[in-house]
Amino acid sequence: LEAHRRAPLWSKPLVNGGLSLLAQGKEDAAIRSFADALRVEPGNAQALANKGEAELRAGRNAEAIATLGRV
């Protein structure tokens, strides 16, 4: 993402990108985007909640439970 390239310490572009991917039904790509956001900002509640949602949609229930437990 261009915005992340310009501001690598800002997680919002990665979260927004993940939301867009999730809306398109691209759960695996969304999970990666949310995980990238969490590497930039580990406590980002929005990234955690949305990563958990994407994991649920992808059928990764155990991962989702662990992720959502961190929110």
Describe it.
This protein starts with a helix and ends with a helix. It is built from five helices and no strands. With 71 residues, it is mainly α. Helix 3 runs antiparallel to helix 4. The radius of gyration is 11 Å and the shape is globular.
Describe the SSE topology:
Blueprint: H1 2-6, H2 12-23, H3 27-40, H4 45-57, H5 61-68
Helix pairs in contact: 2-3, 2-4, 3-4, 4-5
The shape is globular
Q: What is the makeup of the main sheet? A: none
| Uncertain runs | none
Q: Spell out the helices and strands N to C.
A: HHHHH
N-to-C terminal Cα separation, in Å? 25 Å
Task: Identify the notable features of this structure and list them briefly.
71 residues; mainly alpha
Give a short overview:
The chain is an all-alpha fold and 71 residues long.
